[in-house]
Write a structure and sequence with these properties.
Layout (H helix, E strand, L loop, with lengths): L6 E5 L3 H14 L4 E5 L2 H10 L5 E5 L9 H9 L5 E5 L4 H9 L4 E4 L4 H12 L17 H10 L4 H11 L4 H8 L3 H15 L4 H9 L20
Parallel strand pairs: 1-2, 1-3, 3-4, 4-5
Helix pairs in contact: 1-5, 7-9, 8-9
Amino acid sequence: MNPPAVELLIADDHPLFREALTRAVNRVMPHARMHEADSVDSLITLVAEHPGAELLLLDLNIPGAQGFSALAHLRKLRPQLPVVMVSAKEDHATIRRALAHGAAGFIPKSAGLATLDHALATLLAGDEWTPEGDFDAIDVDAGEVAAAAKLAELTPQQFRVLGLICQGLLNKQIAYELGLAEATVKVHVGAILRKLEVNTRTQAVMLMHRLSSDPSTELALPDSGHEDD
């Protein structure tokens, strides 16, 4: 009798890279069942639909998130699910931040097939894997750690709403995107502000940006005239 198939999740908005990861997993575990998402919205649904998944391969810049925000949210939502960050940004600081926020490993998108196979085999065996280097000295800004802790308290729907706020959408636009009543979105926004301990949408966006893969980049803030929309 064959053992039950292992379920893995892949979250990346690039179809070609999702295909490459799927092929790499199939080389290591030919009978693995792969499930794919291309955004935070579809990823949250995927995680809920597959509670038995044993590993998530998560793109650092998945649409709907800011850098490590999706990692921080999922580590609280599904602490038993190992999350491996995958990114073209592979400097030591980025890898250290990923590990500090609870990633089980980090796979650079530049990894060759042999490296990718080895990384996946190691991770699927339950061990951590990172590129060669010293990543023990993890030093993450205290404000970033505090922001991650607050974001982790959001419900999945609140996290979706916050992601759309960060894209500059107004409540009526968020309602349309998520298929909700505008009044429901307003309730979610109020809850988000309370949980993040901020007073405005702009402050919420600024907090989310602390988890960005590059927090030094210029931040596009919501129009202050629409703070109450």
